[in-house]
Amino acid sequence: MSARAASALVAAAAALLGAATARADDPSWRPASASDAAPAPARGDRLGWYVPDYARVGSGGYLGAAVAGVGYDLYRDVINAGVSYGYAPPRGGAPAYHSLSAHLALRPLHLRLHRDVELVPIYVGGGFLRAFGPNLFVHQPPVYPSNYYEPNALHPTAFAGAELNLLTPRSLVRRHGVYYEATTIGQYLYAFVRNDDLRLYDAFSSFVGYRASF
Amino acid sequence: MTSRALGGTWLLAVGLLLTSAGCLRTSLFETSLDEDQRDQTRKNLERLGATPPPGGQLKLVFISDPHERFEELYSIVDWVNAQGDISLVLLGGDVTTFGARQEFVWAHEMLSRLQVPWFVAPGNHDLLTAGPDLYEKMFGPRNFAFDWAGYRFVLFDTSPLELDRRHLPLAWLREQLEGMPDGTRAVVFTHHPPDSRPHILPEEEPVYRQIQREGGVVLNLHGHIHSRYYVRRDGPTTQVNARTARHGHFVLVTLDGDAVTVQPCRQGIGCDAPTPAEPVDIDREWPP
Q1: For residue range A102-147, what is the model confidence (pLDDT) as tens digits?
Q2: Which of A115, A118, A187 should one mutate to test binding to chain B, selecting the residue with the greatest count of B CBs within 10 A?
Q3: Rounded-to-integer distance, Cα A93 and Cα B184, Å
Q4: Any CB–CB contact under 8 A between A136 and chain B?
Q5: ipTM
Q6: Is A206 within 8 Å of B98 when comparing Cβ atoms?
Q7: What is the DSSP pairing of strand B237-242 with strand A205-213?
Q8: Min Cα separation B52/chain A (Å)
Q9: If we measure between CA atoms, which residue out of A138, A152, A166, A123 comes closest to residue B103?
Q10: Which of A169, B19, B93, B165 is most deeply buried (CB count within 10 A of its CB)?
Q11: For residue B120, how far is the Cα from the chain centroid?
Q12: Could you tell me which residues are beta bridge partners of residue B259?
């Protein structure tokens, strides 16, 4: 990765953080293109704190062919925190795969495109992935000397995504969202940063899904 | 910008991302490879068959343990391509760190730029995660031998532990060496040195070395130990540890009949003078 790309990433992260701070601090924050006549997306713990604020399903991102998870949104959906379980069946010689993951996402921008349509044009986040399957371990088998291997079942993750929401504030599901994420694991990201010749998109996997916000 | 234009721009951006930002990878066990990424051992054997054996000396490069430092590996590839008199490149494995698909793909991307035939032995890191399946799909059998230019080159897997096994396939190795045509010498390239624990059992090490000494092996190339380069003579067999390509190290080997000359090299610097082989006392533990 060139120094110029690194600077651009840092600048983008700073801009996102600034926008997030502005949105969280200002309850009247609304993008210039938003319609004043539109109802604000309903937020808050309508169902109680013990009920997650959203549930999601999806596929890809090294998490599984079928992924399901729940999470909470904080600061008017600027921050999301959640957990997921994923499964990929045996295929093409690859064994069955299970994953547990936790994620934290920063979603500073919510743009109203239409009365009932909201766009989260970009969000970024990270987390951890615990993978389960043969030949994967957190604690290496005892046959090896100590610290022989780093865990290959536990990986930090990073992602960037976008989400398009249909607002239905009067129903149980207040927002129906479809989203796309580009997800990577720490080892691939490190390899990309370490090697100028590698292409960024090779380090990422797509993740697509649906999210229901309550 | 109107909301419609904004929405259109966003959809276009997401569309571009969907088509370019990697495929949908559902697990760390994924082993799908494109056709050009498969069967590298067979494909390079075909290239080798079309390459006339050199008259007299045979020059080859041995590289080991690049792990995730693909840029250093590429620099060595560039160096090899610039020489013009190198016939073959052998790798001692650990071309990945976690044995995951994208690491294999990146390693292949660098190695496929080599203008001479190349062969990869499996390293222990290459056999983690989805590595065993990926290695066989991308390269071929983990134990393999071929004859070229008066030598039998034996690619030998020294990582039984990662496959839940305890013993080296020594019977297979002995069979390859016993079946050589008259006058043929052998070059064995592996990941681990013969004294590498825990992969090679203490009771197996002397047998392994004896098979090589008595089997016409003039050269055993290996890596695994990142910090040490050495050349040792174990009877008729020269043992070479290449250090790690992570830091740009590799070795240049010249074969001329039974004679073996080894030069340590480093990308960006070049090669040093040939290293005299240090004799090994086979009756004492090695290394002391």
Answers
A1: 999 999 999 999 999 999 999 999 999 999 999 899 999 999 999 9
A2: A187
A3: 38
A4: yes
A5: 0.83
A6: no
A7: unpaired
A8: 33
A9: A152
A10: B93
A11: 4
A12: B256
Written as one letter, the residue type at B252 is L
- Residue A94 with chain B: CB contacts under 8 Å: 27, 29-31, 130, 133
Task: Pull the structure tokens for residue A202.
Answer: 């090779």
CB nearest B31 (choices: A86, A92, A208): A92
- Alpha-carbon distance values, B138 to A97, B35, B178, B244 (Å): 21, 9, 29, 22
Q: How many Cβ atoms sit within 10 Å of the Cβ of residue A114?
A: 15
Does residue A37 have a pLDDT over 60? no
- Which two tokens mark B93? 């494995």
b/e per residue A9-30 (b: at least 16 CB within 10 A) = eeeeeeebeebbeebbeeeeeb
Peptide bond into A169 cis (omega under 30): no
DSSP designation for B126: G
Residue carrying the six token digits 């060496």: B177
Give residue A155's identity as a one-letter amino acid code: H
With beta carbons less than 8 A apart as the criterion, state whether B242 and B64 touch: yes
Other CB atoms within 10 A of residue B30 CB? 24
Three-state SS for B14-71 is: HHHHHHHCCCCCCCCCCCCCCHHHCCHHHHHHHHHHCCCCCCCCEEEEEECCCCCCHH
Give CA angle at A12 (A14, A206), nearest 5°: 125
Alpha helices in chain A (DSSP H): 3-25, 186-194
Of A126, A125, A140, A67, nearest to A100 by C-alpha is: A67
Give the helix, strand, coil percentages of chain A, each rounded to 5.
Answer: 15, 45, 40
Residue written as tokens 């190339």? B221
Side-chain half-sphere of B218: how many Cα atoms within 13 Å?
18
Flag whether pLDDT at A10 surpasses 80.
no
Beta-carbon separation of A33 and B27 below 8 A: no
Least Cα distance to B256 among B57, B62, B53 occurs for B57
Angle at A97 between CA A91 and CA A103, to 5 degrees: 130
Any CB–CB contact under 8 A between A195 and chain B? yes
Which tens digits make up the pLDDT trace of B150-197? 999 999 999 999 999 999 999 999 999 998 999 999 999 999 999 999
